[in-house]
Amino acid sequence: MTLLTTLLHASNFRNPFLRTLIPSISLAYGLQAAVAIPSILAQSERFYDLSGSLTYLSCTALSLYLPTLRARAAAAATGGVKPEWPSLLASLSGKGGANALNWRQVVLSAAVSIWATRLGTYLFQRISADGSDSRFDEIKKSPPKFAGAFMAQATWVSLCLMPILAINSIPSASMAALPMLAMTDVIGLALYVGGLGFEVTADRQKNAWVQEKKEKIHDEDFLTRGLWSKSRHPNYFGESTLWTGIATVGGGVLVSNVGQVGMGLAGGFWGRLLALAMCGVSPAFVTFLLLKVSGVPLSEKKYDKRYGDRKDYQEWKKNTPMFIPKL
Length: 327
Hints:
With 327 residues, the chain is an all-alpha fold. It contains 14 helices and no strands.
């Protein structure tokens, strides 16, 4: 029995959701632990953010292909014919079925992958140019604290991916019973596209502003143009919005009879409430981190310390919303 077969057998729970959830979360913590060890020894945060993105990509891919992996392993064990890997492109034009994927499973998995690839690349390029990340100046000197940062990142990945893991756990044959398009799909995808566009635009405006300052095109100390004139943290608002979109699509599926049965839930009020909670924890946790932990507080504290006594900074802060943009 191979290692893969052993792991698949050990995680082959009766509940469909647990069959996907446990292996995916285990992978998240395993990957973060693998990157944490050399990072702690070298006292380097260079690969911290990049490892987070790779963990998103790996866990998403595992959850999407896990049913096929199990089917192929079972066929190999009995000498049967292994099923083909599902076609992603074919899934986009269908509702699902035997040895196929529902378009929602593919699109949401792709949505997370696009976001993770962009953010991971952006942050890795930034730390490569800057040489360090001020968030870790003190943390990396303490092995327990630095290890805790990697475990916290694994928790972040696990909670944010909850809607994806839930939807990908539903058998594709069950997903075929869903309507081709629902209102929650339209609203959710619109929020995702709008949020991602907002985040990307804000980051590009910030990069352009930094580059112009290096070239001495301007001597501004803080950015107040473009989306940064509408919100003091437009990139964080965009990120919160795109995760809300993913949760909206997921929630529309999971509260349906198809979602309840497919996940092995009892249905009714409590089953649907649990489904909504699994989807809502994703944008709620992201927004909590951004507003209360590592995003807005660190940025506001840094800029308040530098420019808090300046009238132009006080005016910008007074007239520009912290998070939700003004019209």
